[in-house]
Specification:
33% of the residues lie in helices and 24% in strands. By secondary structure, the protein is α+β, with helices and mostly antiparallel strands. It folds into two domains: 30 residues; 124 residues, TATA-Binding Protein (2-Layer Sandwich), CATH 3.30.310. α2 crosses α3. The radius of gyration is 19 Å and the shape is globular. Pfam families: DUF1499.
């Protein structure tokens, strides 16, 4: 009887954790967006990077090449072509996309904020679940940066 109760408790706990994980992974965080020129800060756990962060969570913003400040559209086009991404919001100065991992379908929110006057694009990439992303968000941002540089270099803006 004790073994049956232990098994039931473990199974119930695992099921509850699975429901929580699934709900969180499939819910857009409430802290996305820009408020007074700032995106949400990244947490202290190593599952996010941002150009508005400090220390080991920092990644450089994107810089459009001189004279090509109208290159904002290129970034959206790059993300639209990604099979593992969906654009949630796209305006003249803000873009929010959700990327998912191929096997387990973990979702990460990637945001860009174009400071037109300052001439740079802030970026934030954060996992929805888990406490460690194995560097996936940083790697994604750097990959997108390279694709953006290449697209803007050949584009007639």
């Amino acid at each position: 009887m004790k073994k049956l109760l232990t098994t039931a408790l473990i199974t119930g706990s695992a099921a509850a954790a699975g429901v929580f994980f699934t709900k969180k992974n499939n819910t857009i965080p409430q802290n996305t967006g820009v408020y007074r020129g700032r995106m949400a800060p990244v947490s202290n756990i190593p599952n996010a990077v941002s150009s508005q962060a400090e220390g080991n969570r920092y990644v450089a913003p994107f810089y459009p090449p001189e004279g090509k400040r109208n290159s904002w559209a290129a970034l959206g086009e790059i993300i639209e072509r990604k099979e593992n991404a969906e654009i949630i919001t796209k305006t003249d100065d803000y873009l929010h996309a959700v990327f998912h991992s191929p096997k387990l379908r973990f979702k990460d929110d990637v945001e860009f904020y174009f400071h037109q006057e300052e001439g740079h694009i802030d970026v934030r990439s954060a996992a929805r679940v888990g406490s460690y992303d194995m560097g996936v968000n940083r790697e994604r941002v750097e990959q997108l940066r390279e694709e953006y540089k290449n697209a803007v270099a050949i584009r007639d803006l």
